Amino acid sequence: MFIYINGEIVSKEQAAISPFDHGFLYGLGVFETFRIYNGHPFLLDDHLERLNRSLHALMIEKEFNRTETTELLQQLSQVNGWRHSYIRFNVSAGNGEIGLQTAAYEAPNVIVFQKPLQPPDGLLEKKGTWLATRRNSPELNERLKSHHYLNSIAGKREVGDDPSIEGIFLNETGNVAEGVVSNIFWVKERTLYTPAVAAGILNGVTRQYIMHRAREAGMEVKEGLFLPIEVKEADEVFFTNSIQEITAVSQIDGQRFPGKHGAWTNKLFSFYASDREILWSRQQN
Questions:
Q1: Which residue from 59, 160, 176, 221 puts its CA 20 to 30 A from 74's CA?
Q2: Does domain 124-284 have CATH number 3.20.10.10?
Q3: Region 67-89: what's the mean pLDDT?
């Protein structure tokens, strides 16, 4: 497997960064994960918009655009020989002295990891479970997709290794937050509900796409602070992230839901399936 690192494509065995990278020493770094479908990086513009905003928040002086990023991804995909793949686009602060730095970081390390994926199939299904571990509060005004992953690791350890089960965090005040690696949605009649960013969640790119598409389909979309009982009373529940797409929920701690038979879940998934080899941004719709 080959990866991209600071302008070069090298084998994973050759890849290296300095131990003085402040992404390693202090967790100062952010990343995006997304899929390439048959050569097309789905919603790349939206991922880069969030990445650039996050880099600005961390005072890392780097910005990415579609043209250079697409060229990079095409080169990496060609070397690896993959048309369908997982991408982790990682930017860490770069090298510095030991100690907390207040000045901006001018030479970040850029690493792009790629893994092969099978061509997409139909709607997937998972079970959910409420976690005892609480979602921590964001360290800045809004949660970044950052190197600070201990809270998510704690949640994953609580759930265990079964990939068919997703843990669901409540935040520190007991409101529904998000999955360990996903955002959560539920449907009641023609209304789509999802926790607000103020609940301490990551504002997922797929999350934003789903809300946009749901409104186009005539659904009312409500973001807010919700208690678990409101999920338990739902007609349908599903998770979203950029790798697993839309994943239907068949049950949460034994309480059953329609899962992949849910009407609205299937309708939204059909939009996703028709868009994934075409869209650069949700705003194209």
A1: 59
A2: yes
A3: 98
| pLDDT tens by residue, 129-178 | 999 999 999 999 999 999 999 999 999 999 999 999 999 999 999 999 99
Q: What are the angstrom distances between the C-alpha of 19 and each of 2, 31, 58, 93, 136?
A: 21, 19, 19, 12, 28
CA 122, 123, 125, 131 torsion: positive or negative? positive
The predicted pLDDT at position 284 comes to: 80
Nearest-angstrom CA–CA distance, 123 and 260 = 6
Single-letter amino acid, residue 265: T
Percentage of the chain modeled with pLDDT above 90: 98
Q: State pLDDT tens for residues 231-271.
A: 999 999 999 999 999 999 999 999 999 999 999 999 999 99
Helix axes 263-275, 205-216, angle to 10 degrees: 110
Span(s) in the chain for CATH 3.30.470.10: 2-116
CATH of domain 2-116: 3.30.470.10
- Cα dihedral angle (212, 216, 222, 223), rounded to 10 degrees? 0
* Separation CA 156–CA 129 (nearest Å): 11
Q: What pLDDT digit, counting tens, does each position of 79-98 carry?
A: 999 999 999 999 999 999 99
> Which residues of the chain does CATH 3.20.10.10 include?
124-284
